[in-house]
Write a structure and sequence with these properties.
The complex is a heterotrimer of chains A (93), B (476) and C (818). Chain A is built from 3 helices and 2 strands. Chain A is mostly helical. In chain A, 31% of the residues are buried. Classes of the chains: A mainly alpha (93), B alpha/beta (476), C alpha/beta (818).
Chain lengths: 93, 476, 818
């Protein structure tokens, strides 16, 4: 893994790291990636990937509105900052 | 000492001493993040007609990555330190409908990522058998609460062994059901395709009743499944039992318990055969690749915008989100997010994530061939018994390698039950059985067979369960 | 250098489901912020998506209507990126296995048919909304989780206008299917695009993505801007940078959007929370049964089944609601042609006035049918029918009930009307005497008196007939409108303007004509037809409109000159359609010849005997009013000097644009005495204005683009370009080609309507230069002649049916729908 790869990966994950943390995490990631090479020993030719291990055909929800009038307010109660009914976040242009 | 009966547990909430006793007992274990035995008003009081069954009025401990309305939902993470859930997980709602009463939220590794219940904002949970040792993880709080006699049943989640391993470390039963039979709605997702809610108890009857009450398809979770009718479910016969053979790298306690279990099973008249798995070495790599990949997306929702902790000051949305995540997540979580992000990146996805998905298919196929010839596969839960706090005995990396026995069932979506395998040198050892899909009844039958020789034991100092302690005449 | 442009669209539509795609929250626009939210769509810890079956059905229905291959299995995936309005910070979408692929949409734009390929359709969830306020951003998650179907086209489009047209066709399609209301302003229909330009035959160029096009108009402007921009860069030898640009609607430019390199990796992977969706027979049957007859097929059927004109059919079929309404009205007994005329005319006018929709209005198909049957069976006359229609809208009652309660039933008893007419004639003996002396002008006054005496309830035709019987008169209005036919030859042989009076006198007592016909000349001033000015046309139009409104004449004959007859005839036809018989005639010689007399006599005969509509009589021949060419053949004395071009494609308008005249109050005095028609001065002003904005020219080798640019700078906004053949002109990179003028015009909202110097069908499909014209935004006018196109443009601008003429799209739309 290229040294800059960890930084690019952290950018995608929106995580900041100081240099200690960066080294520690990079070591941890590298250690696991090397270990993952063990997967190369398995013969996967012709195998479909498993995305859903146990699948029971179609699952669909009827298009009926839910009626729980209080849930929206309960959710707003958890918001760190509100402006009327808007959830507010700082944005100094 | 005598075994407490479910009937006594059903009376405990009526006794005002229970809450204090619970807090008092937890002070040395730290199994709970939150205790509130009076929340029953919002969750039924166990007297409704629907709640007259075996679970009526039983206290329930819930791992803190499972939503219970009105309780916190911290997931052991700083980023959710003050989050209160506005809704119930389906499994909780179903157990409540059956009469159970949530009394508290239990400690865990942050977002379920760990094997020791040490990576938590609430600090580590201690093993009731030895406070210097870990309770296992990530459902360590739930396992310790049951093992220490504080509740008769606890809910956990099992993504790669997080119910079975702490159950084994604490000497109780831990059921990881067939994927989808317990709804994931309300479980804070770590690795969606692998995990399932699990049940921890010392009492097989309560475990069985809770599984029956909580299982079945849920409209809120479209990966949930309904149980096949009894006729098309696997029988509960335990006649042909495979034991995982070969060099397993077990510590002395575990090796001894594993041999003992083999003898116990053989003594029941079942045909016992040792087998090996060719995919064994790839199990943990495939598991961590997939789990980390899914986690990297599942944990993206935590950004301090709609709920959760956010920095006091930020200039713009991106700075807010960066800081919220950087300050809100612990090291292990960040490691897995980075790992998961990496294995999904274009250019690397094929080599890691997509390969892991195919390896997963190979593993499922190999297990399917095992169950074509055997009723059950028995194997250790973990290579060691409960280890000491910190990384002195097992580094974080070694702890991951040690998931090699448990992650198998998660990759294959199969049910597995960790059963007490006796106490060796002061510590309990758990042995697990894996069965084909929907074979939970067979796993419980296996547990009963084992219990005849190796009944669950109580940790020293916790011989008396709380229901017997607080209800007059309980002690004998 | 010749360039090709490639435009592909990414269209998003919000599906009109009751609930969101993955949760039971209402999917509604305009509610209070954060009211339609729940743990699922707010991205709460532990919440899981649950797929809405109706979203899946509607998605497959769209894919099917777009002729896609329907995937037997489609899978959802997570598209990972951080944005504050995206609750989970991943969007559930489809990537490797979308629900539909490889479809197409057939498009006809400016007579160029094309199959635009659809690459794929996939279902995803919408994000919330973020608005900026002061030093913070405010988030509303009501929209989060609304089902969003994305349709991706191949880069088969070439210009902004065409992309806009596709988008409008697509909007019509989804509205027909009932899966989306297609409202770009509210964001239920959204469009991004990718644009590349390259040298001819060099394949695709570097792709630039354009976003933030929030209306159909902005789509066109932004894409044309981008094509121009890339062409300019390439023309200067530059290279195109691959980027995303945002359309700035305030500045009419696009601006580069800086994006971080790292945010381009979306790390798609299968959504573990949703099992793949598999179609089964029941589902596919539900898809089929949700399909409806789509606009192109329905329009064609309306033409063949109900014998409607293409313009009527396409008006009715524009909305499923109006097409359904029409068919329901026909099923309830209305004559198809009547229903079409009323729906396009009076009904539409009332809807426009009240700003309401047809569906849900008090007018039901049954009520319209009832009204039209009452009208057709003579229970009410036209004016009362209009009044009854208004009453239906205001009072929400059945027509039958309205006329019964208000006593509006028409008086159709000839005896009753005869009595009233006799009373009026007795009272108005002076007017009667005037008429009997040969001056028919008081006729309209008498009709008005009879109508007043019956409170407007008398059948006007019957009144007319009874009056004619009583006075033994049938009125044909002859209008002199210049031309040799009313002129005379001076001694030096020069033709000078004159009067028709002697010619008309000579026809009096003509045994070949009915004895009871009288003439009434309205002299519009002595001029020859080549001297016609917009002001003269205005006077003519005003006179016709007045006669049409009072109903005081059975027909109108217009005597004019051959030079401009093809213009005047077409103009009147576009304006008045089939409101009453209007016959234009002319003569190659002066009024004192036998030939002139014969033409006029034939015209009068035609006006008396023919059905309403505008036609031309020249010598013994009769022609339709549109597409007439005056082609004098030397040696022959005018016989056969008119010819109709493209005879089989000539429209004969039934409903004239005059009925849609914008600007008059539109109400009419029921007494019949003072019809409300626009003032002649006002008409003249409008026509002059229109004429100033139009320029007609043939293209010719050596035509200077700079000259056309000068005309544009001088205020010309509409050109009628007569091209060489089926649509060819020089568009080479030289000062003597159309290229620069087209580009300059494009930037100044100038429209180029193209006709041919030959008798040809201009459709831009044959030559590479015609393709360049098409790309340049020129509009081929098919089989219409230059005269027909120019006068139609005048009629459109005069009547204001396309607004004040400043919106070139509205004008082009009406021009093309002729």
């Amino acid at each position: 893994m290229d040294r800059s790869e960890i930084d690019l990966t952290a950018e995608l994950a929106l995580l900041d790291m100081d240099s200690d943390e960066r080294d520690r995490l990079e070591r941890g990631v590298l250690e696991l990636l090397e270990y993952f090479a063990a997967m190369n020993a398995v013969d996967i030719r012709g195998l479909e990937p498993t995305t859903h291990a146990l699948q029971e055909g179609n699952r669909l929800r009827p298009d009926d509105p839910r009626t729980d009038p209080s849930i929206a307010d309960d959710i707003l109660e958890q918001a760190p900052d509100l402006e009327d009914r808007f959830i507010a976040i700082p944005n100094v242009l | 000492m005598r075994a407490s009966s479910p009937e006594r547990w059903q009376q405990v909430l009526a006794n005002s001493a229970y809450a204090d006793a619970l807090r008092s007992r937890d002070s040395s274990i730290n199994a709970f993040l939150e205790i509130d035995t009076d929340r029953r008003h919002s969750h039924g009081d166990g007297t409704s007609p629907a709640a007259a069954g075996p679970l009526a009025a039983l206290p329930l401990a819930v791992k803190d990555n499972i939503a219970v309305r009105g309780f916190g939902l911290t997931c052991g993470s700083r980023i959710l330190a003050n989050h209160i859930s506005p809704y119930d997980a389906t499994v909780v709602a179903r157990l409540v409908a059956a009469g159970m009463v949530p009394v508290g939220k239990t400690n865990l590794d942050e977002f379920g990522m760990g094997s020791a219940t040490e990576h938590s904002i609430a600090g580590p949970t201690n093993n009731p058998w030895d406070a210097d040792r870990v309770a296992g993880g990530s459902s360590g709080g739930s396992a310790a609460a049951v093992a220490a006699g504080m509740v008769p049943l606890a809910l956990g989640t099992d993504t790669g062994g997080s119910v079975r391993q702490p159950a084994a470390f604490c000497g109780i039963y831990g059921l990881k059901p067939t994927y989808g039979t317990l709804s994931r709605y309300g479980l804070v997702a770590y690795a969606s395709s692998l995990e399932v809610a699990g049940l921890l108890s010392r009492d097989l009857a309560i475990l069985r009743a809770a599984y029956e009450a909580a299982s079945g398809a849920d409209v809120m979770d479209q990966t949930s499944v309904s149980l096949p009718d009894a006729a098309s479910r696997p029988s509960d016969e335990v006649r042909r039992v495979a034991f995982l053979g070969g060099e397993l790298g077990l510590d002395q306690r575990t090796a001894a318990a594993y041999r003992r279990m083999r003898d116990v099973v053989a003594a029941t008249g079942a045909a016992v055969e040792d087998i090996e798995l060719v995919t064994a070495e790839a199990v943990v790599p495939a598991y961590y690749t997939i789990a980390a990949a899914e986690a990297s997306a599942n944990l993206a929702r935590f950004n301090g915008v709609r709920y959760g902790e956010r920095p006091v000051f930020a200039e713009n949305p991106e700075a807010l989100v960066r800081q919220a995540r950087t300050e809100g997540f612990g090291d292990e979580v960040k490691l897995r997010i980075l790992l998961g992000t990496y294995v999904l990146r274009s250019g690397f996805q094929e080599q890691y994530y997509q390969r892991a998905q195919r390896v997963r298919t190979a593993i499922r196929r190999e297990l399917a061939s095992v169950f074509a010839r055997h009723d059950l596969l028995v194997l250790p839960v973990y290579p060691t018994a409960a280890f000491r706090h910190g990384e002195a005995e097992l580094t974080a990396f070694q702890q991951k390698l040690a998931d090699r026995f448990t992650t198998l069932a998660n990759l294959a979506a199969l049910p597995a039950l960790s059963v007490p395998g006796g106490v060796c040198d002061g510590l309990p050892v758990g042995i697990q059985a894996i069965g084909p899909a929907f074979s939970e009844a067979r796993l419980m039958r296996f547990a009963e067979l084992a219990a005849a020789e190796l009944p669950p034991q109580r940790p020293p100092g916790y011989e008396i369960e709380l229901c017997d302690e607080v209800i007059p005449g309980g002690r004998t | 250098m010749s360039y090709r442009s490639f435009v592909g669209l990414e269209i998003h539509i919000q599906l009109a489901t009751r609930t969101k795609v993955f949760c039971g929250c209402r999917a509604a626009f305009g509610d209070e912020p954060n009211t339609n939210i729940c743990p699922v769509c707010a991205g709460y810890p532990g919440a899981l998506p649950a797929l809405n079956e109706d979203a899946m059905l509607k998605s497959y229905v769209v894919a099917r209507a777009l002729n896609c291959r329907l995937s037997p299995v489609c899978e959802f995936e997570r598209k990972n990126y951080f944005y504050p309005d995206l609750p989970k910070n991943y969007q559930i979408s489809q990537f490797a296995a979308p629900l539909g692929r490889d479809g197409y949409l057939d498009l006809e734009f400016r007579r160029r048919r094309k199959r635009v390929r659809i690459r794929e359709c996939h279902l995803e969830e919408d994000a919330g909304k973020m608005i900026h306020a002061g030093d913070q951003s405010l988030l509303d998650f009501n929209r989060a989780g609304t089902p969003l179907l994305e349709i991706v086209t191949e880069p088969d489009l070439e210009i902004g206008e065409e992309a806009e047209h596709l988008l409008q066709e697509f909007r019509r399609l989804v509205r027909y299917l009932g899966v989306c209301d297609g409202n770009m302003e509210e964001g239920s229909l959204r469009c991004d695009a990718n644009v590349s330009v390259n040298e001819e035959r060099a394949g695709l160029g570097t792709k630039v993505e354009i976003k933030n096009m929030n209306s159909f108009r902005f789509v066109r402007k932004a894409l044309d801007y981008e094509i121009d921009r890339q062409q300019d860069i390439l023309g200067r030898g530059g290279t195109i940078v691959q980027e995303t640009r945002l359309w700035n609607e305030n500045r009419d430019v696009s601006e580069s959007m800086r994006v971080k390199e790292s945010s381009n990796d979306y790390r798609y992977f299968p959504e573990p929370d949703l099992p793949p969706f598999q179609t089964d027979d029941a589902f596919l049957a539900a898809v089929e049964s949700s399909l409806v007859e789509l606009p192109p097929e329905r329009t064609a059927r309306f033409v063949s089944q109900y014998e409607l004109q293409p313009a009527q059919a396409s008006f009715l079929c524009d909305e499923r609601g109006s097409a359904d309404f029409f068919e329901a009205a026909v099923a309830a007994g209305a004559q198809p042609s009547d229903a079409a005329v009323w729906l396009m005319g009076d009904v539409q006018k009332l809807l426009n006035r009240s700003g309401t929709q047809l569906t849900g209005s008090p007018l039901t198909p049954e009520r319209l049918a009832e009204l039209l049957v009452l009208l057709a069976t003579g229970r009410i006359h036209g004016k009362l029918a209009k009044q009854t229609l208004e009453a239906v809208f205001t009072d929400d009652m059945d027509p039958r009930q309205i006329i019964a309660e208000r006593g509006w039933e028409q008086i159709t008893d000839p005896a009753a009307i005869g009595k009233i007419v006799d009373a009026v004639l007795t009272e108005q003996h002076e007017a009667v005497a005037q008429i009997r002396s040969g001056d028919s002008r008081p006729h309209g006054y008498l009709v008005g008196q009879v109508m007043r005496a019956t409170s407007g309830r008398a059948d006007p035709r019957l009144v007319q007939r009874v009056l004619e019987e009583r006075l033994a008169l049938q009125f044909i209005q002859v209008l002199g409108f210049g031309g040799a036919i009313s002129g005379s030859r001076r001694e030096d042989g020069v033709v000078v303007p004159g009067s028709l009076e002697s010619l008309i006198r000579s026809l009096r007592g003509d045994p070949a004509l009915p004895a009871d016909i009288r003439y009434d000349e309205l002299d519009l001033g002595g001029f020859l037809s080549e001297e016609v000015s917009p002001r003269d046309w205005a006077l003519l139009i005003h006179a016709i409109a007045r006669h049409a409104a009072t109903g005081d004449t059975s027909g109108i004959v217009i005597a004019t000159g051959t030079d401009t007859l093809s213009y005047t005839a077409a103009l009147l036809s576009w304006l008045f359609g089939a409101s009453l018989p209007i016959v234009l005639t002319a003569s190659a010689t002066t009024g004192d010849t036998a030939e002139s007399r014969e033409s006029l006599r034939h015209a009068v005969q035609t006006a008396v005997s023919s059905a309403p509509g505008v036609s031309v009589v020249f010598g013994a021949e009769r022609y339709p009013a549109v597409n007439l060419k005056f082609e004098r053949v030397p040696g022959e004395s005018g016989e056969g000097a008119f010819r109709t071009w493209n005879r089989h494609g000539v429209p004969e308008p039934r409903v004239g644009l005059w009925t849609s005249f914008q600007g008059s109050s539109g109400t009419q005095d029921l007494s019949g005495s003072a019809p409300d028609i626009p003032d002649a001065q006002m008409l003249a002003g409008r026509l002059e204005d229109a004429a100033r904005r139009i320029f007609v020219t043939k293209v010719f080798p050596g035509m200077s683009a700079q000259a056309l640019v000068a005309l544009i700078d001088a205020g010309v906004r509409y050109f009628v370009l007569e091209l060489y053949d089926t649509g060819t002109a020089s568009v080479r990179e030289t000062p003597f080609s159309l290229r620069h003028a087209l580009e300059y015009g494009h930037r100044h909202d100038v429209t180029f309507f193209c006709t041919s110097q030959q008798e040809a069908d201009v459709d831009f499909s044959t030559y590479v230069t015609s393709h360049d014209l098409w790309r340049g935004g020129a509009i081929p006018m098919g089989t219409l002649t230059t005269e027909s196109v120019y006068t139609r443009l005048l009629a459109v601008l005069l009547t204001g049916v396309a607004g004040d003429g400043s919106d070139p799209d509205a004008v082009a739309h009406i021009m093309e729908s002729g």
